[in-house]
Write a structure and sequence with these properties.
The complex is a heterodimer. Chain A is α/β, with parallel strands linked by helices. Chain A has six helices and five strands. In chain A, strands 2-1-3-4-5 form a five-stranded parallel β-sheet, with helices on both faces. Chain B contains 22 helices and 26 strands. In chain B, the strands form seven sheets. Chain B has a six-stranded mixed β-sheet, with helices on both faces. In chain B, strands 2-1-3-4-5 form a five-stranded parallel β-sheet, sandwiched between helices. Classes of the chains: A alpha/beta, B alpha+beta.
């Protein structure tokens, strides 16, 4: 069954999100949203995975994760960034992120991470 | 407010002392560890609520040292942990805090050692509030016959008194975790015990005085983890009326508990099957078993059913949790059988003469019966069942104490830790074995022997059984009948495979006999019954069909003097010597009336004494003739109460009717 994946970021970072799309195309259907449109989208439609581009979102990332996690507590949230710090990683996890990765992860690694998150979160 | 116990693990001893003092001054109890092994040991054995682990627990100068995080990942995942380090990195945080979905992440927070103590304290307070949910205000009431000490004693049967005392507090904490959202609980009844597991009836009250009744399964942590794992894996597909649904669960260092709500919500009326059987009528018992099979077990059995074509019956039986290869060796079983027979003699139950191939059962009031020795026939019995076999999800460890019944006769199984995919037959023969050997009491050895013989006379598993002589015997027979009728509906009419399964399930029971113990008569009786059951099955399954049998042996009664065999409708009948002589006498005079006095003289050597009156002589003859006729009819007649072959002729004698 095709998995539904929501990618959240701005158009400036579309290149990375295209990378994500290519990585997951074998098992997922990816939808792009900006920060402003993502929350109403999540409230209306269920997704198997949410991927957030933290570089594009900036300081609002923790609030965004908290909002998404509250709305869909069972949907894993994967946060990706170009400049990870341990403090930001900690904040993301505390807000409800399931994983926090560097954008420089290979497509294969990204695919594995996405699959794992979806598989584990869907077990009864 | 209870004590929170914190494990603080750091290889910097000065740091360890400073931080321990600080935490203790804030009301925490601190357990110290300075190496990964010490930390691991404390996490597994001490009552720890929260663990704070240094990331580089072995060598601060080694950038690759993550020994503290490894301990967090590999040990006691149910305990929330904080990782502490002077060298925080994004990779270490990711490794520690990444979600697991099935349990807590390796750590729930990550602390920089450069932060001040107040920051640490704040994180600890937040962590305990979020992850350590213990209701210290919970009011706990007990039935006057129960206590924490007793429950610990049941679960930890090998611990000494001093250790039990220290475990009481932990068990209490377990219940404070389990009923975190309740205002009060009353532990009203010990429903059952099974090994190191107890089943308690608990009434929980909310602050608004709303009552919910729970069944609480309580045991050591590893057992409950296995139970819960299997439950979560398989139970989601069981419909609401099909079982006891888990509502709550909790764990401590040594203990675990799961709380269930039964369909209907009433725990106070539930009984284990063992107790229910004793008070139920014959009809109610049969209905209860039918309900258990169709509603309690069927939802499991129908999950992922398949026909096993490749594996042998022996392989599938060896997968049963109660059996090992050693238990299925001839020598192992012989030792058990000889011990049971020896004790039966000293207990005055019966005398059994055991040889390699036979067991001869002597009873004071009847002729000896010769059985094949089950130990010598294991491989033959395995051959009786051939693929394909119906397999599916089985309960795997049914017992009279973990099948619960309500006042309406509705019943459900508990205990999921041995749930596995295997022979469906296993659950059915387990149920029959439980009823015969564990639950049915009050039956004499003769009654049990008689019942086994009648059961084995069936050509098909669900063939109707004639009404037994006593109410207890009838209840047992009808209960077995209810099971076998269901079996036929599920796996068909293959009696040989069913009997082979029953045989090996009886082996599972027999091997529980402990050679080191001395048993009371009441304890010994089911083992002797088990042995007789196995022997009867052996006899039924391993008696070869003789080539060249005449038609009469297949359709009627045929006596072979040369081989001293009696065949009735294709079945070889095992007659004692005197019984054979009696039948032979009648057989030589077919369809003719043989007088009592002639039979008495020819078969029983009762010589006509002129000094005796007719009444006295009649009394002398009646005893042996009547008892032998009764035993013969039970063995020969398809329905002893409606004879087909041996007829009494009132006032004269007996006639063997052969068409």
């Amino acid at each position: 069954m095709t998995k539904k994946i929501l990618a959240v970021g701005t158009s400036e970072e579309a290149a990375w999100l295209q990378t994500v799309s290519e990585a997951v195309q074998s098992f997922g259907e990816i939808t792009f949203n900006t920060m402003e449109t993502a929350f109403p989208e999540i409230k209306t439609n269920p997704y198997d995975l949410i991927i957030i581009d933290a570089t594009a979102i900036g300081d609002d990332i923790v609030d965004l994760i908290t909002q998404f996690h509250t709305a869909r507590p069972c949907t894993p949230i994967l946060v990706a960034t170009t400049s990870p710090t341990w403090q930001r990683a900690r904040q993301a996890f505390q807000a409800g992120a399931a994983d926090y990765i560097r954008k420089t992860f290979s497509q294969q690694k990204l695919l594995t991470i996405c699959r794992d998150l979806i598989d584990k979160s869907s077990k009864p | 407010m209870g004590h929170i116990h914190i494990l603080l693990a750091d290889n910097d001893l000065a740091f360890l002392e400073t931080w321990s003092e600080f935490l203790e001054s804030n009301g925490y109890t601190v357990h110290q560890a300075s190496t990964p092994d010490e930390a691991r040991s404390l996490l597994e054995t001490a009552q720890i609520h929260l663990a704070i682990l240094d990331l580089r627990l072995t060598n601060d100068d080694d950038d690759n040292d993550r020994s503290g995080l490894i301990v967090a990942k590999e040990t006691a995942r149910h305990i929330p942990k904080l990782i502490l380090t002077k060298f925080p990195t994004f990779e270490a945080v990711r490794d520690a805090l990444r979600l697991d979905f099935e349990t807590l992440p390796p750590a729930v927070d990550f602390i920089d050692k450069k932060d001040d103590l107040d920051t640490l304290l704040q994180i600890i307070v937040e962590t305990t509030e979020k992850y350590i949910q213990i209701n210290w205000e919970l009011i706990i009431r007990w039935d006057e016959t129960l206590s924490w000490f007793q429950v610990v004693d049941f679960i930890e049967s090998e611990e000494n008194d001093r250790e039990i005392n220290s475990r009481e507090a932990e068990l209490e904490e377990l219940f404070r975790r389990l009923f975190y959202d309740s205002h009060q609980v009353t532990i009203s009844r010990l429903l059952a015990r099974q090994g190191e597991t107890v089943l308690l009836a608990v009434h929980a009250f909310s602050l608004e005085e709303r009552e919910t009744q729970f069944l609480v399964l309580c045991s050591n942590r590893h057992h409950i983890q296995a139970e819960e794992g299997q439950y979560d894996r398989f139970f989601s597909k069981v419909p609401a009326e099909g079982g006891l649904h888990k509502q709550l669960s909790a764990q401590t260092a040594h203990y675990g508990a799961m709380a269930f709500i039964p369909p209907g919500g009433q725990v106070s009326e539930l009984l284990p099957l063992t107790h229910f059987y004793r008070q139920a009528s014959t009809e109610t018992m049969a209905t209860t078993l039918a309900y258990l099979l169709k509603t309690g077990l069927a939802p499991w059995h129908t999950q992922g059913q398949f026909m096993e074509e490749e594996r042998s019956f022996q392989d599938l039986v060896l997968a049963w949790p109660e059996l090992t290869e050693e238990m299925l060796s001839q020598q192992y079983l012989e030792a058990k059988i000889e011990a049971i027979c020896r004790q039966s003699l000293t207990a005055g139950l019966a005398r059994c003469d055991v040889t390699t191939h036979t067991i001869t059962l002597h009873r004071p009031d009847s002729e000896p019966v010769v059985y094949p020795n089950p130990a010598a026939n294991l491989s033959e019995i395995f051959k009786m069942a051939a693929p394909p076999f119906l397999c599916g999800l089985t309960h795997g460890r049914l017992s009279g104490n973990t099948i619960l019944v309500n006042s309406l006769g509705q019943s459900w199984p508990l205990g999921f830790s041995h749930t596995t995919r295997g022979l469906l037959l296993h659950d059915f023969v387990s149920l029959e074995t439980i009823i015969k050997f564990e639950i049915a009491t009050g039956l004499s050895l003769e009654a049990r022997q008689d019942m086994e013989y009648r059961l084995l006379k069936q050509d098909q598993p669900a063939q109707p059984l004639e009404v037994a002589e006593s109410t207890e015997q009838d209840k047992l027979s009808q209960a077995i009948q209810a099971i076998r009728q269901y079996v036929v509906a599920i796996i068909g009419h293959d009696l040989d495979t069913y009997l082979a399964g029953l045989f090996f399930r009886a082996v599972c029971y027999l091997v529980m006999y402990d050679l080191a113990f001395r048993y009371t008569r009441a304890e010994l009786m089911p083992y002797l019954h088990c042995l007789i059951s196995m022997a009867e099955i052996c006899h039924k399954l391993t008696t070869p069909t003789r080539e060249g049998l005449p038609q009469q042996a297949q359709t009627s009664l045929w006596l072979d003097e040369d081989n001293r065999e009696v065949w009735v409708e294709g079945r070889l009948v095992n007659l004692a010597p005197r019984e054979f002589e009696f039948l032979s006498y009648l057989y030589q005079r077919p369809n003719k009336i043989c007088s009592r006095s002639d039979i008495a003289q020819a078969v029983f050597d009762i010589v006509d004494d002129p000094a005796l009156t007719a009444v006295e002589r009649r009394r002398l003859e009646e005893g042996p003739i009547n008892s032998t006729i009764s035993r013969m009819r039970k063995k020969i007649e398809p329905s002893p109460k409606r004879p087909k072959y041996i007829f009494s002729v009132r006032g004269e004698g007996y006639r063997l009717l052969l068409e």
